[in-house]
TrEMBL record:
<keyword id="KW-0239">DNA-directed DNA polymerase</keyword>
<dbReference type="InterPro" id="IPR048466">
    <property type="entry name" value="DNA_pol3_delta-like_C"/>
</dbReference>
<dbReference type="GO" id="GO:0006261">
    <property type="term" value="P:DNA-templated DNA replication"/>
</dbReference>
<dbReference type="InterPro" id="IPR005790">
    <property type="entry name" value="DNA_polIII_delta"/>
</dbReference>
<dbReference type="Pfam" id="PF06144">
    <property type="entry name" value="DNA_pol3_delta"/>
</dbReference>
<dbReference type="Pfam" id="PF21694">
    <property type="entry name" value="DNA_pol3_delta_C"/>
</dbReference>
<comment type="similarity">
    <text>Belongs to the DNA polymerase HolA subunit family.</text>
</comment>
<feature type="domain" description="DNA polymerase III delta N-terminal">
    <location>
        <begin position="24"/>
        <end position="136"/>
    </location>
</feature>
<dbReference type="GO" id="GO:0003677">
    <property type="term" value="F:DNA binding"/>
</dbReference>
<dbReference type="GO" id="GO:0009360">
    <property type="term" value="C:DNA polymerase III complex"/>
</dbReference>
<dbReference type="InterPro" id="IPR027417">
    <property type="entry name" value="P-loop_NTPase"/>
</dbReference>
<dbReference type="InterPro" id="IPR008921">
    <property type="entry name" value="DNA_pol3_clamp-load_cplx_C"/>
</dbReference>
<feature type="domain" description="DNA polymerase III delta subunit-like C-terminal">
    <location>
        <begin position="220"/>
        <end position="337"/>
    </location>
</feature>
<keyword id="KW-0235">DNA replication</keyword>
<protein>
    <recommendedName>
        <fullName>DNA polymerase III subunit delta</fullName>
        <ecNumber>2.7.7.7</ecNumber>
    </recommendedName>
</protein>
<keyword id="KW-0548">Nucleotidyltransferase</keyword>
<dbReference type="InterPro" id="IPR010372">
    <property type="entry name" value="DNA_pol3_delta_N"/>
</dbReference>
């Protein structure tokens, strides 16, 4: 079950007394806790009927006291235990407290609603977790998938009275890199970026070009925008993006261009050899999100084109030392070769 299931159980008064939430992104956890405190317990006697503990500091006596304490002027008491360490390698270390907790599940206080918070992508289903599954509910607040993330973006802009089309939504999702797990971006990071973007948009129904102009304002966004324009052979947009980066670290831009070419060569090689995507991703050292993007880009290039671009980058280093050209001008030459010279 997920975040929506928890809200539905809350609204229909079907919450169980024992609950485990596996969390990959704290955004939905914070929303859930807010709803539990406000809508399930109520704010009038919250100080008496809500307790939040840290698993690492939890003792058997403290746990038993919390779950057995009766609520004040209510029939519900909420207990949240954060940072539960349920990793397989940690079970021996916390065996004593876990045994106490597990035994309490068999005859649990019906006025206490316990939520154990476990932050990890994987959940080891040992006897403790199986006991929770038997006596209560397990929720998984996972990261959003592509469809859910697109819907999240559209919903955010609609709340600001801005309507996005699918193409613009795809552009924003691509730039925000939430779907690229290597970026380690949370929905809090995404909301912050969407807020800045929404403030830059003047129209209620912005065009794709308006979105594109508004979104590129940080170095990270600029460099990934530049690489995308280069890889799709859009010389005008690539040069415009590069010209907005005059005050940035040109050595870093140069490095990122070389990295892009190397990755495209690797992906092209894997595709030509018909290696399956999972093996290819591991071989190239790329996550599925970035690999998928590059797989689309390489259709515009022959392997010989990419090898030439790779050679050109290293020849350009020599060119800088033997000519009066600046590093900035040399990178501009590489961009043109990338877009129109291959």
């Amino acid at each position: 079950m997920d975040y929506i299931d928890l809200l539905n159980n809350l609204d229909s008064n079907k919450l169980k007394n024992i609950n485990l939430i596996q969390v990959e992104d704290k955004y939905f956890l914070d929303l859930a806790v807010k709803s539990l405190k406000k809508d399930f317990i109520g704010e009038e006697f919250l100080d008496f009927n809500f307790e939040r503990l840290d698993f690492e500091k939890l003792t058997s006596d403290k746990y038993e006291s919390c779950v057995e304490t009766l609520p004040l002027m209510s029939d519900r008491r909420l207990v949240i235990i954060d940072n539960c360490d349920l990793n397989r390698d940690s079970l021996k270390k916390y065996e004593e407290i876990l045994d106490v907790m597990q035994k309490s599940f068999d005859d649990f206080n019906t006025m206490t609603y316990l939520f154990l918070i476990y932050e990890s992508e994987k959940l080891f289903k040992g006897k403790f977790v199986k006991s929770i599954d038997k006596n209560g509910d397990i929720y998984n607040f996972s990261r959003l998938d592509k469809r859910q993330f697109y819907r999240f973006i559209k919903k955010y802009f609609l709340s600001n009275k801005i309507k996005l089309d699918d193409k613009s939504t795809s552009l924003i999702a691509d730039r925000l890199r939430y779907l690229d797990k290597d970026a380690n971006r949370t929905l809090y990071d995404i909301e912050n970026e969407l807020s800045k973007l929404a403030n830059n948009i003047k129209s209620n129904t912005p065009s794709y070009d308006e979105i594109e102009e508004s979104i590129i304002d940080t170095f990270e966004e600029k460099i990934f925008g530049l690489l995308d324009y280069m890889s799709t052979k859009d010389a005008t947009k690539a040069l415009n993006a590069f010209h907005t980066m005059k005050n940035e670290d040109v050595a870093m831009i140069y490095y990122m261009i070389i990295r892009q070419i190397r990755n495209m060569i690797c992906v092209k090689d894997c595709v030509q050899k018909r290696i399956n995507p999972q093996t290819s991703q591991n071989y190239c050292g790329l996550k599925s999100f970035e690999y998928g993007k590059l797989e689309r880009f390489i259709s515009k290039y022959k392997m010989s084109d990419l090898l030439y671009l790779h050679h050109l980058c290293f020849e350009s280093e020599k060119y800088i030392k033997t000519s009066k050209r600046t590093f900035y001008e040399v990178i501009e030459r590489i961009i043109l070769a990338f877009c129109v010279g291959v």
